[in-house]
Amino acid sequence: MTTPLYQLKAEFFKTLGHPARIRVLELLSERDHSVSELLPEVGIEAAHLSQQLALLRRSNLVVSRKEGSTVHYSLTSPLVADLLDMARQILTEMLSGQAEMLHDLRATPRATSARH
């Protein structure tokens, strides 16, 4: 029995469901990074970053390569960067719509209620 596609998608998005993992993927969308370069940018402890990177490796979203004592990480596919960009566009549209609603609410005069 094969796993339904919708379930695989849910697991994929669950993998993306942590701010530190998203930040790592954003940084790797720009270029390859070493762990020491990621640490100050992600803003978590080294052990926690190591756990997040291991999860991303197991999920085949990133790969690592060792150069001497330095480990560098990169995305396995440029589609990951495209997905993050698409998420940014969706959020921009959603927030833009909310800003328009807020503007409309503020521009609409309040109904005054009679207080006794």
From TrEMBL:
Single GO molecular function:
DNA-binding transcription factor activity
> By its UniProt entry, which Gene3D superfamilies does this protein fall under?
Winged helix-like DNA-binding domain superfamily/Winged helix DNA-binding domain (1.10.10.10)
Name this polypeptide is given: Transcriptional regulator
For this protein, the record's Pfam families field holds: HTH_5
The source's domain of life comes to Bacteria
Which keywords accompany this UniProt record? Answer: DNA-binding, Transcription, Transcription regulation
Q: Which InterPro entries match?
A: ArsR-like_HTH, HTH_ArsR_DNA-bd_dom, Metal_resp_trans_reg, WH-like_DNA-bd_sf, WH_DNA-bd_sf
Where the record annotates domain HTH arsR-type, the positions are 1-95
The keyword Disulfide bond appears for this protein: no
Q: Which NCBIfam families match?
A: HTH_metalloreg (NF033788)
